[in-house]
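Recap from last week: sequence in, structure out.
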Amino acid sequence: MAEAEAAPAPMNPQVQGLYGELRKAILRENFDKVLSVCKKLKAHADAGPDDDVVRSECIALLQLNRLDAALELSGKHAFLAFERAYALYRMGRHEDAQAACEAAEDRDSPRFRHLLAQLQYRQGDYAGAKAFYGAVANGEDEELGDDEDNIHDAQVNYLAAMGHAEDYTDIEAYVESHAADVEEDYEIAYNAGVGLSAGLESGGVERMARAAEFLRSSRDLCATTLEDEGLGNEEIAEECGIMDIALSFILSAQGKEAEAIELCMAALQRKSGRPVDVCVAANNLTVFRGQRDLFDSFRRLNKAVASAEEKLSTSEILTLRCNRCLLLLHMNKPKEFEAAVAELRKDYPADAHVFLLEVAIKLLNNPKPAEVAATLEAQAADFAGREKARVSLAAAQLWFQAGEDAKAVEVLAGMLEADADLVKTPGFVATLVSVFNTKRRPELAKSVLDGAFDPASSAPYMIRYAVEYKIKFGDAEGAVKVIEAAEQSDMSSDDRLELGALKAVALSWIAGRSEEDVEEELDGAVADLGVSEHDLYGAEADDEVDILDLERKVPHRVRRRPAPT
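Predicted structure tokens:
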């Protein structure tokens, strides 16, 4: 007959009451109360040691952002290895946090793998982060793939990692296969928009409209979701602010800087703005302003970075610090500029941005652009992709500055041959076309424009840009063909109106066309749209409208051919 086990001693009623208080405080997320109760339990003679109480205390310290105290407590207990790694992560000590993860006995557990992926993202190892989040998002991780919350968070982070890893075609494929998620969840739609907008610089002009669509959709979804949850207008505005800031980047790329600046200023003036949002808005505002309001931009950027640096990724911090260096240069503070660049070189020893800032120092100390251009051209081979393009473009600009136009054009033409996708970049297209046009190389400018866009899918502003220059180059028939192809795609009435204005101009320049011929063709084009001329103009029914007045809608540099006298 087996021996009966001794019955456990009854718990002290006072201790039992404290455990009840602790459970309630945890459920109500009252972390100050959690700390108070944990202190009482640890001090009570009858309570005895309890790992759960110690863990509750440590988690409360983390939730209250008392990171130093959490790190100290977790360092005393081996069972708090994860909390210690997380405290180091929150403190921005990413290398120490990664070492703590890798040294943990259960480092292969889901929570450590998840934290390690976050660390990889913060430190710029986007391929590693993408691999982890992709496995979870696609249901390939057996331990994390069955939980809807895990899958949702992984989808959001997967899109962010793909954007930073410059895997833009992967983003497009993912949102195509998960269209319902993008349409229903504002966080997923937001990260899809941000990821695609990052691709504009590397040849994704045609992605601009789609990225803007995702960002606007995410804002609408966010506002509706939070309104249904009972949040107030200020809370909704704060949550939607990051969508507006991301949209400002696209608006700027579309040449709508006034709207972009307005969105950033609204974010900066919002009293409840989150530090990261304010940081991004301050940086974007600095870029949009250029050399205007330098001291105000410098003050805002410094303040924003100080409040949010620990929450930014490595690449984001690099961008902010580079812009800070440029502000110092424009503010005529050469010593401070050199010191700031030297600090960047320590932290980012092989980055092209830092290399170009060092080139600026060379020009300050030895203003001989031809010598620096030759150095840049030679060292461009040390870089790849966009970084190589930046270095080569800087070399070309310096060759122009030195009066060596032929060498500059040779560098630029070489860039076109080496990287065809590069010519789709809006800023790069504008730079090349302007340079080639100024240097009387219209055939190269035309080549850039023809390769930069697709009338059926590119953003309307890019189509307008190409049409304007075709007219300037004397290719009016080519301009009309581009417009007619673009008219078959979906676009707003405002975009159609502007293309109609350019069509009026292009038709007028085709030899043998009279004003009557032009007017007849335009009337037919408007009829095909299913609207009236009054609809296009936004005019009242009894207002007199002349469709040839569409000319007023186009830039002064492109004008209708004068009627013969």
